[in-house]
Automatic annotation (TrEMBL), chain A:
The chain crosses the membrane at residues 12-36, 48-68, 74-94. Residues 103-123 are annotated as: Disordered. InterPro entries: PhaG_MnhG_YufB. The keyword Metal-binding does not apply. It comes from the Bacteria. Keywords: Membrane, Transmembrane, Transmembrane helix. This is Cation:proton antiporter.
Automatic annotation (TrEMBL), chain B:
InterPro entries: Cation_antiport_E. It is found in: Cell membrane. Its main location: membrane. Belongs to the CPA3 antiporters (TC 2.A.63) subunit E family. The chain crosses the membrane at residues 20-46, 102-123. The lineage of its organism: Bacteria, Pseudomonadati, Pseudomonadota, Alphaproteobacteria, Rhodobacterales. GO terms for molecular function: monoatomic cation transmembrane transporter activity. It holds the Pfam family MNHE. This is Cation:proton antiporter. Keywords: Cell membrane, Membrane, Transmembrane, Transmembrane helix. It comes from Cypionkella aquatica. GO terms for cellular component: plasma membrane. It is a multi-pass membrane protein.
Length: 123, 162
């Protein structure tokens, strides 16, 4: 980590841009999580961080550490794969839990299309 | 062959992961391959449905499309959050889409695609009727989400997983 000063400018610029992009998107996602009003809207905000927010940070890490270690450093890609394939699990659980609650309570903000259980009474 | 490698894709992916997580050497290649082989047998004992990919070229093409779409929708959703919902004009809503796709692996991939794309959230899917309930962050009038998802993602997935 102390060799950071050896990183040339042509590499430091894309790495910096990717880091700013990734952390910026993640920050925006968390702002959305606070700011948005409905539960279903809030489901979307964190995916900014798990999508390109994560991808940009991983890319920056691959670029920088490949240079610093003098060999392709690709194990960060494993993080990206696992984040990608595990996010839908939590998303679906949260979404379906909210849907279940809203249906049980007959929540007025739930539109007709989402009100009935799928397949029971096909529209 | 298929008795020794009941799940060639899984074993291959595990070997690749082992090599990524360690330094590449012949010893690690052999060790990783052995572990992947055993994992393949263990998976075979569970008798999951065999994954068969028919069109590798389409999978690569889909990957490119999805990467671009995720980038684009990231920008759209980020902009919507920054501008406080395009000045309060943003309306979210639910969309119900009838899917033809029945392969569980294809559906899993579709779920990953839709979840990784900010702006669409997979809420519920009914296996019998194939109906998918989707929540769309920015539902504009005239947008054909049903057609978009069926043509852009489902059609290639149907060909890949058959």
């Amino acid at each position: 980590m102390s060799h950071l000063e050896t990183v040339p400018l042509w590499l430091a610029i894309p790495v910096g841009l990717l880091l700013v992009l990734g952390s910026g998107l993640t920050l925006l996602g968390t702002i959305g999580l606070v700011q948005l009003k409905s539960f279903y809207d809030r489901l979307h905000a964190p995916t900014l961080g798990t999508g390109w927010g994560m991808a940009a940070i991983v890319l920056a890490s691959i670029l920088l550490f490949s240079w610093l270690e003098g060999r392709p450093s690709l194990h960060e890609a494993v993080i990206a794969v696992f984040v990608m394939i595990t996010t839908p699990v939590t998303m679906m659980m949260l979404g379906r839990a909210a849907l279940h609650r809203d249906r049980k309570e007959n929540a007025p903000e739930l539109p007709e299309i989402a009100r009935r259980t799928l397949g029971e009474d096909t529209p | 062959m298929s008795r020794f490698f009941p799940h060639p894709l899984l074993s291959l992916a595990l070997t690749a992961m082992w090599l990524l997580l360690t330094r590449f050497s012949l010893g690690n290649l052999l060790l990783g391959a052995a572990i992947a082989l055993i994992a393949g047998w263990a998976m075979g004992a569970l008798h999951p449905r065999r994954v068969r990919l028919r069109r590798w070229d389409l999978l690569a093409k889909l990957l490119c499309i999805v990467t671009w779409d995720i980038l684009k929708s990231n920008a759209t959703v980020a902009w919507a959050i920054l501008t406080n919902g395009r000045g309060g004009k943003r309306r979210s809503g639910f969309v119900c889409i009838p899917l033809e796709l029945r392969s569980i692996n294809g559906l899993a991939l579709l779920a990953i695609i839709l979840t990784a794309t900010p702006g669409t959230a997979w809420l519920e899917h009914d296996q019998d009727s194939g109906l998918l309930l989707l929540h769309v962050f920015d539902l504009r009038d005239g947008d054909d989400w049903s057609g978009l998802i069926r043509n852009r993602y489902e059609a290639p997935l149907l060909e890949i997983f058959g």
